Amino acid sequence: MKRIFFFLFISLTLIACKNQLSDDEELNQYVNEWVYQNMSMLYYWNTTLPVYKSTTQNPELYFETLKNKDDRFSAIFDNYEDILNRLNGVSSSDVGFEFQLYRESNANNNVIGIVLYVKTGTAAQSMGIKRGDIFRKINGTQITIDNYSSLLNSFYDVTATVKVTFTDYVSYVFYDEPAITINKAVDYKEDPVYLDTVYTVQNKKIGYLVYNFFTNDAGDGSLQYDLELNSVVEKFKQENIKELVVDLRYNSGGMMSSAIRLASMLVPNLASEKVFVYTEYNNNYTDYFNSAEFKKDYPGENPFMDNFSTTIMNQTVQNVGNNLQRIFFITGKNTASASEMVINGLKPFLPCVLIGDTTVGKNVGSTLVHDEDNVKNQWAFMPIILKYFNKDHQSNFTQGFAPDFKIEDDYTYQLGDLREALLAKAITEIAGSQNIPVKIVKKGFDQLNSRVAFKTREQGLFVQKKSISMYLK
Questions:
Q1: Which of 178, 262, 330, 430 has the fewest C-beta atoms lying within 10 Å of its C-beta?
Q2: Each residue's pLDDT tens digit, 56-71
């Protein structure tokens, strides 16, 4: 993928005298001016920013006053290193499973969590915790609408263990099991390539990939995860699959370079001159990228367009696209951005059949901005800086991609089990089988809040400061 380097020089001036402000107020004032100056340069909607006024307001609250009414995704964080690790799937402390929250009943304020999947190599996995398990208490306290946020923080705080009470749900009655103590994973590096397999159903070879977020490595520059993904597709190619199911139901996005590489592995007739995505920026970016200075410094580069990729670290991109007449994508309510970019980018080249739920509808992207000059400023923010389009200049999915087959996510069976509801529907469409039993474990529960509020990765399109190699979250 091309790399386009650009440098931003912003001069910041503090207005207030130090002796008039407390240390916290002085830092807040500095951070807010720093945020505003960067937003005025980078923000996709920079022409709609209010007039700058010096303020000691909490930066998180101040940031909200700058966002455009159409901006659902720009975000600010109080720790740069922490958010950078999250984007790479690295967690300093992790309970070892992802989950979804539900109201226990309309008759009370109790909340339950249902395990979506268990992370490889964690204590939770070795203890036998599995998809579909239900928990009601954390550290002995019943989870409720009022306390769930604070209780769930104990899944990821600095403590070494957490007690979780799982429960059986039989005939609409909960039967709590004894609480178990889970040793949290320390400095856990989650592999986004969660599961891959090949099924033979009625003499048809079907590839299945569960891919949970887009990042090329754990931040070490090895491109380990992209290379692993390439090996998976090579296996699919060797197995001569004729159908493919890509499971993105829990994938809220990630790095654009990884999105380009995955799409490159799936597009028919892969060629480096084929356009995958176009990008649109504010006037600052547009003028710079069109300038004689930029063209002199980066001859032949086109920051408004990305083609499909044919290599990864001098390795050939493995491609299975010519084997396929269509691709099945499993989607969910948190399927976003990089996932949507792959779907949108492949639609002009072959049919994409969506099974599951409507996606988020994120066709814009952001960059992670942090202060390299002031060590006291640990804040970072991700402003939207671009909008992206496929090769037919289509980007009209702000309401999300609606599924061709709307199927509720069911937790009775493990991911990869042919009886699992969404995969079963894909197999039915491929092979015509109609005899796969499905039981809905969560019938009667109302979804309360997505695990996305506590995810180790943030939803947003992330563009590295000195390069337009993008994260799409």
A1: 178
A2: 999 999 999 999 999 9
For residue 87, the model assigns a pLDDT of: 84
Three-state DSSP class for 260?
helix
Secondary structure, 3-state, 422-462: HHHHHHHHHHCCCCCCCCCCCCCCEEEECHHHHCCCCCCEE
Phi-psi category of 294—alpha, beta or left, where left has phi over 0 and alpha has psi -120 to 50?
alpha
Model pTM score:
0.88
**DSSP H or E run through 200:** strand 193-201
- Written as one string, the DSSP assignment of 129-198 is --TT-EEEEETTEE-BTTTHHHHHHTTTSS-SEEEEEEEEEETTEEEEPPPEEEEPEEEEE--SEEEEEE
The CATH number for 190-436+468-472, chosen from 3.90.226.10, 3.90.220.20, 3.30.930.10, 3.30.70.1350, is: 3.90.226.10
Give bridge partners of residue 161 from the DSSP assignment: 183
User: 92-188, which class in CATH?
Assistant: mainly beta
Question: Which pLDDT band holds residue 20 (cuts at 50, 70, 90)?
Answer: confident
